[in-house]
Write a structure and sequence with these properties.
single chain; mainly alpha
Length: about 110
Amino acid sequence: MAWIYLGLAGLLEVVWASMMKQTDGFTKLGPTLITAVAMAASLWLLALALRTLPLGTAYAIWTGIGAVGAFIVGIVLMGEAATFGRIASVALIVTGMVGLKLSSGV
């Protein structure tokens, strides 16, 4: 169950990071509320996952999901560049996350 909590926490990190850009410096109420709720829910789910998972593994995977997800949202929805170097760099993050999962023993 901890891995499910961690995956959901990571997805919510993508939501709040993406919505934070839409807040325009927290001047728009709707995106600001979505950001705050998603952030709180993400941290809560991370805390639940940390009951079982090692801190280093859980935190690295949580931030990795957020980073990769925000990268994908940036390309798909915000028109950011999808260069070879950027994609290769994100592939290294994903490889590291898989390595952490496989070597965690949990």
